[in-house]
Amino acid sequence: MLGLMMRALLFTASVFLLTQTGLAQNSQIKGRIVNSNNDPVTDAYVILGNNNQIDITDKNGRFFLSDLMAGTHSITISKIGYQTTEKQVEVKHNATKELQIMLHTRRYQAPSVVVTATRTRKDIEEVPTPVTVIKKDEIRNSGNTRLSDVLAEQTGLVLTSDHGTGVQVQGFDPEYTLIMIDGQPMIGRTAGTLDLSRISVGNIKQVEMMKGPSSALWGSDAMAGVINIITEKGNRPFEMDVTSRYGTNQTFDIGTNISSNSSNWQNDISFNRNSSAGYSLVPGSISQTVPDYENYTGTYRTELAISDRIQTALHARYYHETQQSTDFIGSQDNPTLLNDKAIQEDYSLTPSFHFNVNAKLNIDTEYHYSGYRTEREFVYQENDQLYQRDTFKQTYQKAEIRGNYSWDANHISTFGTGLNWEQLRAERYKGNPDFQNIFIFGQHEWLPSNKMDLIAGFRYDAHSEYTNQFSPKFSARYELFDWFQLRGSVGRGFKAPDFRQLFLNFSNPTVGYTVLGSSTVKEELTQLDKEGKIDRILLPLDNLSEITAERSWAYNVGFDLYPLPDLQLRINAFRNNVDDLIETAPIAEKTNGQSVYSYFNLEQIYTQGIETQIRWNPISGLNASLGYQLLDARRQIQQTQTVQDENGNPIQKEISKYEPMFNRSKHSANIKLFYHYKPWDIETNIRGRWHGRYGRFDANGNGFVDSGEYEEGYTLWNSAVAKTFADKYKIQFGIDNIFDFTRPQQLSYLPGRIYYAQISLQLY
Fold this sequence. Notes:
- This protein is mainly beta.
- 7% of the residues lie in helices and 58% in strands.
- The strands form eight sheets. It has a 22-stranded antiparallel beta barrel. A five-stranded mixed β-sheet has the order 10-15-16-13-14. Strands 30-31-36-35-32 form a five-stranded mixed β-sheet.
- A hairpin with a 7-residue loop joins strand 25 and strand 26.
- The longest helix has 23 residues, at 2-24.
C-alpha cells in the first residue's frame, strides 16, 4: 500500500514538473531593431538579462528569444556606433511578444568603430585610451595622396626628415610608433624611419591612431603608439573609381579601386602609380633634395564566407619604387660625379581564417609574410664604372591565433599567442642575423554599468636576442554625465634593439661618415684604426657596451566634454618615463673629417604634455576642428662639476639634471575648416598647422639644447576647392604650402608651394 502511494505521489510530482517545464518553455520575444530612419540595424546584440540568452539581429534587423518563462524580462540591445538600450518586457504564458526598438546613434560621427585600441570592434566613445580617427571623407577632401601628408595635419603629430618622412608621437622619434595596414605591421625602416610617403591613401577607409604605449597588445615597436591604416571594402555588387592628380614638380598620381561583392564572396583590387621629377631646395647643389622617382602599389583582398560562422580571407600587397639622381664624391668645387640609382620594394601576403564558434566565442588565425628589399648602385659618370653597390633584404613572418569570448553582456575576454621570425641579409650588416620571438597576450574588459568601462591586459614576449619582456596595461572610462566622461590609462612599453642598432657596419659612400652597431663597434673601430682611418677616438673602447631594450611607463588621463550637441572638447594629459633610451652619438673622428657613430642607452628621458582638440559643426555643412599640443621632452644629463664642500674646499661632484631634447617643439597647433555648400555640391577647405621653435643642432656637443641652438617656428597653410557633378564626377584644385615656406636642412620633405588639379570618377 505504501509503495502504491509513493508511486502515485511520484507520478503526480512528475506531471506537475512537466507542466511547469512546459509553462517555462512556451513564451517568446521577437522583434526588429531599427535606427532613426527606420532602417534595420544588423548584427546588434540582443541579450536577455535573466538567463543571458543572446541573439544577433539578421540583415532585416530581426531577433528571436524563445523558451522563456511568463513574466517580466529585461533585455539589452547593443551595437557599435549606437547607444545601448535596455527594455523591460512583459510576456504572458504561452504567448509571443513582438517589439520594434529604435537605437539612437552616438554623438561621434561615423565611422566611429575602431579596432586598434582593444583588437575588437569598439565604438570610439567607449575606448578608454586616446584614439583619433581620420575619416575617408577628410582624406579625400584634403586632396592628399600620401599618408605622410595626411598625418602632418593631425594634432600632436610632427613629421621628421631622416632617411625618409617619419612621424613623431608624444615626443618620441618615428621608430617608436608601429605602422600597420589592416592590423599587420609594415617593415622596411631606414635609420629607424619607415618612410610614410610609401603609402598611398587612395584605398583607405580610415586611419586609427592610438597614442601612448601599446606593447600590451602589439609588442615591441608600439612604445609611442600605433597607427593602423584600415583599407576600404566595396559595398555594392560592383564598384570602380579612378582618381588622378597632377601638380608642381611634375608630380603625377593615378589610382583605381575595383570591388565586386556577392552574397558570400568579396574582392577588392587597388592600384596606384605615383611619380615626380623631384626638387632641389639648395641653389647650385649637385644633388637634388628629393630625386626624381616613380613607384607603383598594388593590393588585392578576397574574403569568402564559407558559412554563417566561417570566413576566410587573403590580403596581398606589392610596392615598387625606382629613384635616379646625381651624387658626388670629393668637394663641391671639385667633384667626381656619380649616377645614383636606387630600387626599393615591399611585399606581403596574409591568409586568415575566422570562426564564430557560437554567439559568445570567435577565433581568428592568421599568417603574415612580408619582405622589404633595397638595391642601390653608384656609377662614375665619366666612364660608367661601378663605384659602389649595396643591397638589403629583410623578411618578417608572424603566425598568430587569438580569440574573443563574451562571458555575458558585461565581460569580454581577448587572448592569443603567436610567433615572429625576422631575417636580414645585407652587406652592411655583419653575418646574417635573425630574431625569433614567441608571445602571448590577454585582455579582459568589464562593464560594471553603461557608464563605466574597465580594461586590463598584458603581453609577454620571449625574444631570442634580449631579455623577456612583460607589458601590462590598465585603462578605464567613466561617463560622469551624459555630456562629460573621463578616461585614463597606465601601461608599460618596450622597444627591443633592432638589427641596425646591434649589427650595422655602414660607411656613407659620398659623405664619408660611419655608423657601427653596438655588438660590433669595438672590433670594427679597432680595424678602422689599424687602417689609419681614425684621427681621434672620443670614447675609450672599454666604455662601449652592448645596448639593451628600452623600457617605459606611461600615464594618460583626460576627458571628453560635450557642451553642445555639435561641439566636442577632448583633453588628454600624458607622461612617458623612459629608461635606457637608445640614441646615436659620435665615438671617433675620421681622418676625412667625418665622425664614427654608434648606439647607446641613455640614462633616462621623459616626455610629458597636454593635447587638446575641439570639433565643432556650427552650421550645416561646416566642420571645424582646432588642436593644440604642449610638449616637454627632456633627457637626463650627467655632468661632473667642481663645487665646494662644507669646509670650502673644491671637490668634483656628479650632477644629474634634465635638459630639453632636440627637434621637439614645445608648442604646436592646427586648425581645419571644411565647408560643403550642398545646393551647388561645392566643397572647400583650409588647413593650417603651426610648430613653435625647436632645438636644431647640438653645436657644442653637450647633448642638450642651449639657448643659442633653437630654430624659429614655422606655419604652413593648405587649401582646396572641389565641385562634384551628378554625384559621380569630381574636380578639385588645391594649393599646399601657400606661403612657400622651406627649410632645406631640417624639413627636406617640404618642396615649397605646390599647385595641383585632381579628377575623381566614380565609374560604377
